[in-house]
Amino acid sequence: MLLTSLNPAVVAAGADIADAVTIGGTTLSRSDLVGAATSVAERVGGASRVAVLATPTATTVLAITGALIAGVPFVPVPADVGAAERAHILTDSGAQAWLGELPADPGGLPHVPVRLHARSWHRYAEPHPDAPAYVMYTSGTTGAPKGVQTSRRAIAADIDALSAAWAWTPDDTLVHGLPLFHVHGLVLGLLGSLRIGNRFVHTGKPSPQNYAAANGTLYFGVPTVWSRVAADRQAAAALSSARLLVSGSAPLPVPVFDRLVEITGHAPVERYGSTESLITLSTLADGERRPGWVGLPLDGVQTRLLDDAGDPVPHDGETIGHLHVRGPMLFDGYLNRAEATADVLAADGWYRTGDVAVVDEAGMHRIVGRESVDLIKSGGYRIGAGEIETTLLGHPAVAEVAVVGLPDDDLGQRIVAFVVASTAAEAVPDELIEHVGQQLSAHKRPREVRLVAALPRNAMGKVLKKELT
Ligand code: MLC
Ligand code: AMP
């Protein structure tokens, strides 16, 4: 096996499995997957970059696998993407075509369809490990999303480190219902399964009932999913026969952890990461799983905690510092954004995560929060307050706006926009919410728009977001 392969034909050569991938009502055997994806590779080979509308379907799985086999970097586009965000992603990434599913408005790009029943048995040479696997767009505190470039080597290193941490093997059946346009569902869920060679089941919606019915050994979810599972005793009890329940992408509330232990008998494994770094910290299949803590550095990962002056803080389990990580799974920079890259990724390989944390004497990490109130995590989605504010300011009814993430039992944070209406048009909250959905994406819609007479500001005119509750 080649060290960094993400090609199921290489990784799991020999063994066929009748139900290697189940998604969107379709089941593919390993040979179906390899034959159909290699046929996709033949159609797309030579392209410099392709966009994949990442709906949870077999078409998307084959598009992604085909691009990986051909060594063509793909750009996963959110399945619920709106007009302005789609235009930005296409222009910034320079994608040449849509591969697989086609959005309602393809934005002028040609379409390369995926044929579920086509087969090719051509064997492709393994691309160089440093070659980019994909460009994934992610939100910052301000501005439009940035394209995170990730190499094949980084993905392979991360999956192998997780396989060691979680004793993840080809005997597992991995179940999740998360989007295929972010690290959690795509890299860990799908690419992890392709590389390790285990069965992969996508449940569609990640509802407690769908998880209960899937009969997996290894389950992935964001805290919102686990909180909903924990609230459904019957569904949660059905997960008792699983091997490992894994939570990540946002903090898992301690009461949810405790309830999962009580009903399923499993203490969930918590792990931490980001689009830029992939997963860097995790509790272990055979180690301590401490509620509220995200674990130890994975194989090859180093972490450091710095104070505001850039000096190391003690690992005493109490002193809070800025968390930096370094390891083989880190990204190669933001596409077309050298300055933004230099802001967070140092020449010596340290990535400034933007999270604040504590570490105890044993090296166990706890994430305390984020440095900026302008990066919101809602349902595990990372959303920039700035991009929503810019979008709302583009609506004639909005004179001023401040967007915040308010605490929410279900979503962790919920997006709330405080709007000062303009005199040019009537401000109707539902219309403003819909405007964000149409321009950015459905999952970036504020849950609530509150019309206010003025925003709280300091003497310099800066909005005091902490006063918006
Ligand atoms: C949602 N709805 C709204 C709305 N928002 N309606 C009006 N206004 C709004 N603002 C509607 C939805 O369309 C849906 O309608 C209904 O309300 C329920 O919505 P919901 O509560 O959001 O539930 P759901 O859609 O099921 O979403 C919850 C969720 C989702 C957990 C499934 O947030 C999710 O998939 N999160 C995963 C994000 C993720 O994978 N992040 C990983 C990032 S990678 P209807 O009609 O459809 O029912 C990463 C690295 C790492 O972080 O460490 O992993
Ligand atoms: P994203 O780029 O969407 O993957 O978001 C990355 C961010 O999600 C991190 O910087 C953290 O703020 C947050 N995050 C991911 N996993 C966890 C976790 N287990 N606990 C707390 N925060 C997390």
From TrEMBL:
<dbReference type="InterPro" id="IPR000873">
    <property type="entry name" value="AMP-dep_synth/lig_dom"/>
</dbReference>
<comment type="similarity">
    <text>Belongs to the ATP-dependent AMP-binding enzyme family.</text>
</comment>
<feature type="domain" description="AMP-dependent synthetase/ligase">
    <location>
        <begin position="44"/>
        <end position="335"/>
    </location>
</feature>
<dbReference type="InterPro" id="IPR025110">
    <property type="entry name" value="AMP-bd_C"/>
</dbReference>
<protein>
    <submittedName>
        <fullName>Acyl-CoA synthetase</fullName>
    </submittedName>
</protein>
<dbReference type="InterPro" id="IPR020845">
    <property type="entry name" value="AMP-binding_CS"/>
</dbReference>
<dbReference type="InterPro" id="IPR045851">
    <property type="entry name" value="AMP-bd_C_sf"/>
</dbReference>
<feature type="domain" description="AMP-binding enzyme C-terminal">
    <location>
        <begin position="387"/>
        <end position="462"/>
    </location>
</feature>
<dbReference type="Pfam" id="PF00501">
    <property type="entry name" value="AMP-binding"/>
</dbReference>
<dbReference type="Pfam" id="PF13193">
    <property type="entry name" value="AMP-binding_C"/>
</dbReference>
<dbReference type="InterPro" id="IPR042099">
    <property type="entry name" value="ANL_N_sf"/>
</dbReference>
